[in-house]
Specification:
This protein has about 200 residues and is α/β, with parallel strands linked by helices. The protein has ten helices and eight strands. Strands 1-2-3-4-5-6-7-8 form an eight-stranded parallel barrel, surrounded by six helices. The two termini are about 15 Å apart.
Length: about 200
């Protein structure tokens, strides 16, 4: 499976409207704490934007809405796995990406035959409080050896400057949030990301 190596995460379709024309080919829509109607609208709009630009949309968490909207990918965190109907997700033909942070989580996820495995946080992250300390690059190398052919996504504290080291350590894909969304010139930063991951 050929997924793009640059994997930004955004919380609104407006970001996709701005960034997809720059050449983003893999993107996650992560919507938190919004009414169901807003979630459904955002996923539908993002689905259409990605199809128009030939990009892969990964919907975070909202697996039932993703199924209803005819999306192709879902990303689940460990807590999401407890409530998600994996059989329904697979029946609908959705591909599955899952977050992992430790050995037990990785073993649990590999038993599900995921379509990618995310490891994080590779570096300290300001996005959300986590009980896990930074994983570091040696852990990326170890995880890649364990997941084999399954694409490995490095996430957490990522920046343009850190990308080469993360890819060299074994990650197939590098995911990013705040290095773009908090940048004074997000478009320029996305262009830099595309350049360093191409």
């Amino acid at each position: 499976m050929n997924l793009d190596r640059f994997y930004p995460i955004f919380d609104h379709s407006d970001w996709l409207r701005r960034m997809l024309p720059l050449g983003v080919k893999l993107v996650q829509l992560r919507i938190k704490d919004q009414a169901d109607a807003v979630v459904r609208e955002q996923i539908a709009v993002s689905r259409d934007l990605c199809r128009a630009h030939g990009a892969v949309l990964v919907v975070n968490d909202h697996w039932q809405v993703a199924i209803d909207a005819g999306c192709d990918w879902i990303h689940l965190g460990q807590e999401d796995l407890d409530d998600a109907d994996l059989k329904a997700i697979r029946r609908a033909g959705l591909k599955l990406g899952v977050s992992t942070h430790d050995d037990d989580e990785l073993e649990r996820v590999l038993a599900m035959s995921p379509d990618y495995v995310a490891l994080g946080p590779v570096y300290p992250t300001i996005l959300k409080k986590m009980k896990w300390k930074q994983q570091g690059l040696p852990r990326v190398t170890e995880w890649k050896a364990r997941v084999g052919e399954v694409p490995l996504v490095g996430i957490g504290g990522m920046s343009v400057e850190r990308v080469p080291g993360v890819l060299q350590a074994g990650a197939d894909i590098v995911s990013v949030v705040t290095d773009i969304t908090l940048n004074a010139d997000p478009e320029a930063r996305v262009r830099a990301w595309i350049e360093v991951t191409t």
